[in-house]
Amino acid sequence: MKLKQIKKAILIWGIVSQDGINQLKNEKELVVLPEMRPYLIGLLHNAPLLKKEGLEFVYCTDNMLGYLFYQNKIKKTVIFYKELTPKGIIGVSGSLYVGLLSHLHKVPIKILPEGRATSNFKDFSAKTLLGKSFVLEKEYFVVEPKEELVSYSVLR
Amino acid sequence: MNYSSPLFLPVVLKEKRILVLDETALPFKEEYLEIKNLAAALDILAKMKTRALGQVLLFFQSAILFQEEISPEELAKKFKELRPTFDFELLAQILKKQVKAGITLEEAVKNFIEGLEQKRKARAKELAKDLPGKANILTICNVSGELVYLFAELESMGKEAIFYVSETRPYLQGSRLTFWELRKNKIPSFLICDNQAASLMQEKKVNCVIVGSDRSTLNGDIINKIGTYSLARLAKHFGIPFYALTQYPKDIDINTIEIEERQENEVFMFLEGVNFSEYQAVYPSFDITQKEFVTKTYEIKAN
Lengths: 156, 303
Prior knowledge:
The complex is a heterodimer. In chain A, 27% of the residues lie in helices and 26% in strands. Chain A has 5 helices and 10 strands. Chain B is built from 9 helices and 13 strands. Chain B has helices spanning 38-46, 53-65, 72-82, 88-100, 105-130, 146-156, 173-184, 197-202, 228-238; strands at residues 11-14, 17-21, 32-35, 134-140, 160-166, 189-192, 208-211, 215-216, 222-225, 242-247, 280-281, 286-289, 296-300. In chain B, the strands form 3 sheets. In chain B, strands 6-5-4-7-10-13 form a 6-stranded parallel β-sheet, sandwiched between helices. A 3-stranded antiparallel β-sheet of chain B has the order 1-2-3. A 3-stranded antiparallel β-sheet of chain B has the order 8-9-12, covered by helices on one side. Chain B is globular, with a radius of gyration of 19 Å. Chain B starts with 10 loop residues before the first strand and ends with a strand. At the A-B interface, helix 2, strand 3, helix 3 and helix 4 of A face helix 7, strand 6, helix 8, helix 9 and strand 11 of B. Strand 3 of chain A pairs parallel with strand 11 (280-281) of chain B, so a sheet runs across the interface.
């Protein structure tokens, strides 16, 4: 797919739920589906589910999202959260990246509880991609991904 | 300590062959591909076996080796068909100007490469002066060894540095090239997934962002690897300086430059064993960062 074919799509982040799928079906819009490193939630969990449910989506890497916002390709962001807190939502790694980029580009954010992960994820940091390492050293440092708080001031 | 990287000079002309460090094989193999004809050069370019500084050198060495069959201007057109974002016409103009002044192609290329190396080192030095005593640097993609130059300069100034390298999906230039060359030189570095940048900034783990650029304008806009713009927007939000290494900025509207879109299947690079054949994907290879999000550029200007 070329960029010019994407008009006003819905971006999703997190483990999509059945309720989320139903809402996306009602919207009838193209879904932008980032791969969601390190776990590859987008590829391993969300993509098969969206395909099974007949939703049209376009896959991308996480780092493409800024440019999609810049090009006004995203009309709405849906973040699937793990937990609601008095300060905001707790979501999977990258939730703050997506939440902030949406906020900075004035794209509205909807939050929904996440679904249940049914896939076996092999990757838990930048150390591996589908279980394979791209670093020669046996011992090296990564920043371990963790759940991220996205405050209500960003979500508004 | 002697710092080095094979990415300082990834493409060389040796007798009647061009030797190209195959960046797609790194870090597992440091292997040089041999080019003896134009078709092979174009194939290597199309497959991104070399990129950034490597494609500049490939252009210049091809201009020498194939000068009997193609002019630099025509070569630039062929290179541009394959990598439309980069300014190969400018490289052809540099050669044309030199040849017009009575210098051979070979001498012109030699002078350019030597001059460029000096300018890159000078640029790294200029940047190093502006960085704090403890620089915690977030970076993306790969700037062909220049971060190694930068670390050497910082060390000579008595400054410390740690690099946080964004892996840079789908090609993993961050993991495979930048993190590799930093670790080869035992330079302190951490690897992150691209989407961790925001939390890193929020936790104040980084105090500057440093990126390269493939194109730049006189008023300070840049085009660089996809993911750069996200870092710039986030850096601005968190009040973190965002520095760009640029070369040959032009008086041009950045939005008129074509952003290369690669084949869909390349988005799934390195994801062996997964059946993605029915998934559609989008792959803009670069993005645009406007000057309002760039704290400072460190320029190499054309002579």
